[in-house]
Each structure stands twice: as structure tokens, then as C-alpha cells.
Specification:
Blueprint: H1 2-8, H2 23-151, H3 154-169, H4 176-191, H5 198-211, H6 222-227, H7 230-236, H8 246-252, H9 254-274, H10 277-294, H11 300-313, H12 327-341
Length: 359
């Protein structure tokens, strides 16, 4: 620009031409200079405009770049903020995880302690369950033994022993299996006994008591009258002499004879209910004696009643107790005493660890 300005600067004015030159060349030179000046000015303006447009474009690009840089800076700042936020969240999550880990360890320890406590309770429950079953079995064995000892009733004793075996079958302790074997041995021994049919015997005695009223009393012995002296036969028509004893009184009084026989049969019924063999035999013996002494032996009813009394006398009310009876009860009591002497190992609970801080 300075060179061009220097080129456009008019040089020193030429020497004054003589006024005698023509006016046309002077005008053409001025016009040329004006044209040249216009060209120079137009070229400068054009150049300035181009430079201005170029500067404006550069400035626009610079502003766009600045805007982009600012946007990138904002993005970087936002990203940094997000990273800081994520880092803070990661730190919080790490703390929470550490706390949860501590709580999980604590819960694991508590679960272990709970399992031990439940196992201890289950063991105690099983022990109590077995103890109740053992009590029930012992009671049933005692009832069965006493039932047979008092009433000599194998059927009732068998029922009690079977119930005791069923109770021990529900126990969880295998040690009761030996007691069950002893109970089964006693059940077999009781089942082998041949006990009398007490119901049939009681019905027979009841029928005999009803038939006592149909018995014919014994008649006076004609042979005694024939062998007595003559004077006794004569005075015997007006005076009778007899002995004052029970047999004679019963023979002379049919009602008394029937009452005595019925009393003996009723006593036999009582002995049958009590399973008393001695009273049973004594009552039947007296009944047979009264029947033979006070009633007509040739009478059909008396003969049938005598046969039934003989059959009843052969009944065995109280068979001898088996040698093994009571062994299961002793074995059960010994087993329970042994178990009671064994101390139970206590379960020691450990304290749970401290929990970590929670967020």
C-alpha cells in the first residue's frame, strides 16, 4: 500500500510550459491522472474490501473456534463434574458394600447361632418326646403286670403289653429296641397261657343257680328204718329222734338245702370275678358236697348239675405267671436310669460381631 501510494504521489511539477501550448493536451493529461487516481482508488478500495472480508471471515472463524472451544471446555467441565459425582457415588457404594459385608457376616454368625439353638431345641424336643413315650410304656407295663398279678387275666395283660410296644415303636432312640424285644417275648409267653373262658364259666354258674329250685330233695333212707329195732319202729311213729347237725338240718329242710347250695354257687361266682383259685375250689367243693348230701342223686337235674360242677372244677383260673414276666419293665427302668445319669452337653453361644456403619 505504501509503495502504491508512493507511486501515485505526483512528482514534482514540471517546469512551466509556455503558455503558448495548446489547451487540449493539458486536459487529456489531467483526465489521465484522474483516471489513474480512480483506478488506484478503486483498486485500493477493492483490496481493502477483500482484506476486510478476509479479516471478517477470519474473525468469524475465530469466533466459531472460540465458541467451539468454550463448548468443549463446558463439556470437559461437565464431564469432570460427572466424574467427580460418579467418584463420590463409587465411594458411597464402597462404604455401603463394606457395611453390607459386615451385616452379612453378622447375619451369617446369627444364622449359625440360630441353627445351633434350633438343633439344641430339636434335641431337647426329641428327648422329651422319647421321655413321654417311655413314661407311657412304663405305665402300661406296670398296669399289665398288676392286672395279671391281681386278676390272672392274660387277655388284659396282653392288651397293655401291646400298647406299651406300640408306644416304644414311636421313640427315636434306638436303645429302646432291646426293651421292645423283651416285651415281645413276654407277649409270646402270655399268649401261650391257656386261660379259662371266664364269661362262659360265669354264664354256667348263673344257669346252675337258676336250676337249684328244680332239684328234688333226698328221701329218708329206707334201709336205716328196716335195720332199726322193733321198739324204735313202733315209737318212731309217734316220736322221731335226730342229730342236730348241718347236714341233717339241710336234709330235713329242702329250702335250707337249696339256700346252702345257692350260697356256694354265688361264692364261686365271686371267686371267679376275683380270679381266686383257692376260694373257687372251696366253693365248688362245698357245692358238690351239698348236692350229694341234700338232693336226690338219681334225679336227672342233679346228675346234670353234678357234671357241670365237675367240669367247672377242672378250670384253671390262675395259671402260673411266665418266668419272663416283668423283665421288660426292669430293663426299661434300668435304661432310663442310665440315660438320666448321662449329663447333657451345653451349647455355648458366641457373641455376634459388631455391625459396620450404615448409610
Amino acid at each position: 500500500m505504501s509503495d502504491m501510494d508512493s507511486d501515485l504521489t505526483p512528482s514534482a511539477a514540471p517546469a512551466a510550459t509556455p503558455a503558448t501550448g495548446t489547451a487540449a493536451p493539458r486536459r487529456s493529461g489531467t483526465l489521465g491522472w484522474l483516471l489513474a487516481l480512480g483506478v488506484v482508488v478503486g483498486a485500493g478500495y477493492f483490496t481493502w474490501r477483500m482484506q476486510s472480508d478476509s479479516d471478517a471471515a477470519v474473525q468469524s472463524d475465530a469466533r466459531a473456534l472460540h465458541a467451539q472451544v468454550d463448548a468443549v471446555a463446558r463439556d470437559v467441565a461437565a464431564t469432570k463434574h460427572d466424574n467427580d459425582s460418579l467418584r463420590a457415588r463409587l465411594d458411597d457404594a464402597s462404604k455401603v458394600n463394606e457395611s453390607l459385608r459386615g451385616q452379612l457376616l453378622s447375619l451369617t454368625e446369627r444364622a449359625r447361632l440360630a441353627e445351633e439353638a434350633i438343633a439344641n431345641l430339636a434335641e431337647k424336643r426329641l428327648s422329651g418326646h422319647d421321655a413321654l413315650l417311655a413314661n407311657e410304656a412304663e405305665l402300661l407295663l406296670v398296669l399289665g403286670g398288676e392286672r395279671y398279678a391281681l386278676f390272672h387275666d392274660p387277655a388284659s395283660a396282653l392288651d397293655a403289653y401291646r400298647l406299651a410296644d406300640a408306644a416304644l415303636a414311636q421313640a427315636n432312640d434306638a436303645a429302646f429296641s432291646t426293651v421292645r424285644q423283651s416285651i415281645n417275648a413276654e407277649i409270646e409267653a402270655l399268649g401261650a397261657l391257656r386261660a379259662a373262658d371266664f364269661a362262659q364259666a360265669a354264664n354256667t354258674l348263673g344257669q346252675l343257680r337258676e336250676r337249684v329250685a328244680t332239684l328234688a330233695p333226698a328221701m329218708a333212707d329206707a334201709a336205716d328204718a328196716a335195720t332199726s329195732p322193733r321198739w324204735a319202729q313202733i315209737f318212731g311213729q309217734f316220736l322221731r329222734i335226730g342229730r342236730d347237725d348241718e347236714r341233717t338240718l339241710a336234709r330235713n329242710d329242702p329250702a335250707l338245702a337249696r339256700a346252702l347250695l345257692d350260697t356256694s354257687l354265688r361264692e364261686a361266682q365271686d371267686a371267679l370275678l376275683l380270679r381266686d383259685s383257692a376260694r373257687w375250689r372251696d366253693a365248688l367243693t362245698r357245692a358238690q358236697s351239698h348236692l350229694a348230701a341234700d338232693f336226690d342223686a338219681k334225679n336227672d337235674n342233679a346228675a346234670a348239675l353234678r357234671a357241670q360242677l365237675d367240669a367247672l372244677a377242672k378250670l384253671q383260673l390262675a395259671p402260673a405267671a411266665p418266668p419272663v414276666l416283668g423283665a421288660a419293665l426292669k430293663e426299661l427302668r434300668n435304661l432310663r436310669a442310665t440315660q438320666a445319669q448321662q449329663p447333657a452337653a451345653p451349647v455355648q453361644a458366641k457373641p455376634a460381631p459388631a455391625q459396620g456403619p450404615t448409610t
